[in-house]
Each structure stands twice: as structure tokens, then as C-alpha cells.
TrEMBL record:
Gene3D superfamilies, A to Z: Vaccinia Virus protein VP39 (3.40.50.150)
SUPFAM superfamilies: S-adenosyl-L-methionine-dependent methyltransferases
Superkingdom as given in the UniProt entry: Bacteria
Keywords: Methyltransferase, Transferase
Protein name: Class I SAM-dependent methyltransferase
Length: 279
């Protein structure tokens, strides 16, 4: 990677972006994100030149991005006046892929160093604001308009936060908005507990700080928050239909290992306004 000045969890944006960039080269891509290819080349001009440089094993992360996009598009079709809070956005080009109508106000949030990189590698947009802040310093919420439906998307972020911070974030968002949808992904408890030995995370000098065997429990953060459903990742029909044959075979085998099929869970919650009597 170029000398980008990124540290720890910030560096984890790179393997996800690389997977999205490589997906765009498939004859029939899952996400088809040309911005990912451009941003990845900017971040690391040699990203595809090293050993395993063009391996498509990262495609499960692309499936995760597609699941978040599909849920987001459905929510925005029903709520064209929404505010989108895309938290821990990294260099993901979701706002460009979804290209919402001008009635939607989109906020991309990540650490200031990442926001700087976004300004270098991604073009400006209307109705789009970058916030350079840790998501855990909740004063950033004061910069966002209230009183409208909210769509919260946190892709690949929750494992880097403590459970206390995740719960505080969810509670604050539900308290701040009348109605909304929250989309997150979480890792299993075993993946969290063993993360200090994970070679990729070790390379970046980071680890996971929380994990859930049943992420639906996060709905108990707030009486208005409800668990809705889950999208598949490592065994998703899209992965099995579109990944190259060697990648499909590898995932079929990996999915036989206990815990691996559901090592990451992509889940959706929603909340609505309550009346005076609490219903
Ligand atoms: C695995 S990357 C995912 C990036 C992007 N969501 C994607 O899917 O391409 C994790 C991202 O979370 C961000 N992140 C981790 N902890 C954060 C925090 N406390 N506040 C803001 N961003 C955070 C990192 O900087 C990084 O960009």
C-alpha cells in the first residue's frame, strides 16, 4: 500500500476495497463498482501484481456489500426523504453505486485520515457530506438533520467497536430519529475471541472488539428497535452463481467447517415512531 498514513483498523478498508475492485473485472460482476477499481489503484498501484494478487477469495465481502446495497435501495425507494448515515465508510462508493435522488441527504463517516483519502480518490457529490470523526464520539450526530427517516449502514465496522459502544450508538440513533432502518454485520464470538491471532488483522495491528452468536440480541438496546432479518454471505446463491469455479469450490469446503458458514452475519433492524401509549 502507498504511504497513506493509515493505522490499525483504518487499514482494513484495503482488503475489502481490493475485493470490490477485482469483482469489477469479472465478466458478470456481483457489485460492478468501477469506483472501487479506481480508488484501489490510487491506494496501491500494485495491488494486483503480487502473489495471489488477482485471487477472488474476497468475493464474500463483495456479496456483503451487495446485500447492504439491496436493502438500502429498498429502504430509499420507500423513504425518498431519508437521511443516510454510512458509518465506517472506508473508501466504499455506496453513494455513487446507489445514486439516490436529490431528496436524500447522504453522510459518509470515517476517521479524518480516511475522509482525506476519499477526497483524493472519489469525486464530490450533491446532497453528500463527509464527516471525519470516530463513530464513538457521538457529537457527530449533532451535524445531521433530525425529524426524517434514517438509514444507518455499518459495513465491516461493528467488530472494531466494543459492544458497549455499539449499543450506545444504536440507542443514540433510535433516540434521535422518528423512524429508520439499521443495517450492520457482525462476527461470531469465536472469530472475535481468536482475532488476536488472525494473520490479516495482526498484519494491520488491530483485532476485533466484539462478536455475537445471535446478533438479533442487539434489538434489546432500545424498546423501539426490532430485528427484521438476515442476508446470506459465505453461502449466498449469488456467490455460488457468479464466483469463479475455484472460489466456489473453496467456499463449499470452508462452509463445511463448523462456525464458518455464519462467521459473519449481515442483519437488518428497524424502528418506528411510538404513540403516547407506547404502541
Ligand atoms: C473493514 S473496513 C470497512 C470499510 C467499508 N465500510 C467497506 O465495507 O468497504 C472498516 C472501516 O471502519 C472504520 N472504523 C473502524 N473503527 C472506527 C471508528 N471508531 N470510527 C469510525 N470509523 C471506524 C475504519 O477506518 C475502516 O474504514
Amino acid at each position: 500500500m502507498n504511504d497513506t498514513g493509515l493505522v490499525g483498523a483504518q487499514k482494513t478498508l484495503s482488503p475489502v476495497l481490493r475485493a470490490k475492485a477485482l469483482d469489477n473485472r469479472l465478466p458478470d460482476p456481483i457489485l460492478g463498482d468501477r469506483y472501487a477499481e479506481e480508488a484501489m489503484r490510487g491506494l496501491d498501484p500494485d495491488y494486483d501484481k503480487r502473489r495471489f494478487g488477482t485471487s477472488q477469495m474476497g468475493l464474500a465481502a463483495v456479496v456483503r456489500a451487495k446485500a447492504h446495497d439491496d436493502w438500502a435501495r429498498a429502504f430509499l425507494a420507500e423513504h425518498p426523504d431519508a437521511v443516510v448515515l454510512h458509518l465506517g465508510c472506508g473508501l466504499d462508493a455506496r453513494a455513487y453505486r446507489i445514486d439516490p435522488p436529490p431528496t436524500v441527504d447522504w453522510y459518509d463517516l470515517d476517521y479524518p485520515a480516511i475522509v482525506e483519502l476519499r477526497r483524493r480518490f472519489l469525486p464530490p457529490r450533491e446532497h453528500y457530506t463527509l464527516i471525519g470523526s470516530s463513530v464513538t464520539d457521538l457529537t457527530w450526530l449533532d451535524r445531521v438533520p433530525r425529524g426524517r427517516p434514517v438509514l444507518v449502514i455499518a459495513e465491516g465496522l461493528v467488530p472494531y467497536l466494543t459492544e458497549t459502544d455499539v449499543r450506545r450508538l444504536l440507542t443514540s440513533v433510535v433516540d434521535a430519529f422518528p423512524t429508520g432502518q439499521v443495517q450492520v454485520d457482525t462476527v461470531a464470538v469465536w472469530a472475535w475471541r481468536t482475532s488476536k491471532w488472525d494473520p490479516t488483522l495482526r498484519k494491520y495491528g488491530t483485532r476485533f472488539h466484539c462478536g455475537f452468536d445471535d446478533p438479533a440480541v442487539l434489538a434489546d438496546c432500545h424498546p423501539r428497535l426490532e430485528y427484521v432479518d438476515e442476508a446470506p454471505m459465505n453461502d449466498s446463491p449469488e456467490l455460488m452463481a457468479k464466483a469463479p469455479a475455484n472460489v466456489r469450490r473453496a467456499y463449499r469446503l470452508l462452509n463445511l467447517l463448523p462456525g464458518l458458514r455464519r462467521s459473519t452475519r449481515i442483519v437488518r433492524f428497524r424502528f418506528i415512531e411510538t404513540t403516547v401509549d407506547g404502541h
